[in-house]
Design brief:
- Keywords: Nucleus, SH3-binding.
- InterPro entries: Glut_rich_SH3-bd, SH3BGR, Thioredoxin-like_sf.
- It holds the Pfam family SH3BGR.
- One of its GO terms (cellular component) is cytoplasm.
- Belongs to the SH3BGR family.
- The protein is an alpha+beta fold and 109 residues long.
- Helices cover 37% and strands 17% of the residues.
- The chain has 4 helices and 4 strands; from the N terminus they run βαβαββαα.
- Strands 2-1-3-4 form a 4-stranded mixed sheet, sandwiched between helices.
- The protein is globular, with a radius of gyration of 13 Å.
- The two termini are 24 Å apart.
- 23% of the residues are buried.
Length: 109
């Protein structure tokens, strides 16, 4: 299975669309294999995503918003945590992948 990015193709939020595109472009640009899962096309996938985000990472109100990132069944984080790992050059650790040369070994989450 590997890296899965849960997105919403029919979101009316420009911010969500921009974040999804940035995340996907980064993964593609770094040749990181991933599966894009559209939660607007599958109720089962949307429910799976909601159930598998740990309680401490859920918003106080409402449902978690895409993009949400998993490595197999392990929750990696949302866009904000991805962005932090990108800025600190720890994306591979954040995703649970073997770091490539020039990246830090551990994520500071």
């Amino acid at each position: 299975m590997g890296i899965r990015v849960f997105v919403a193709s029919s979101s009316s939020s420009v911010l969500i669309k921009k974040r999804q595109q940035e995340l996907v472009r980064f993964l593609e640009g770094n040749k990181i294999e991933f599966e894009e899962v559209d939660i607007t096309m599958s109720e089962d996938q949307r429910q799976w995503m909601y159930r598998n985000i740990p309680q401490e990472f859920r918003p106080a109100q409402g449902n978690p918003l895409p993009p949400q990132i998993f490595n197999d069944d392990r929750y990696c984080g949302d866009y904000d945590s991805f962005f932090e790992s990108k800025e600190s050059n720890t994306v591979f650790s954040f995703l649970g992948l073997k770091p490539r040369p020039g990246t830090k070994q551990t994520a500071e989450l």
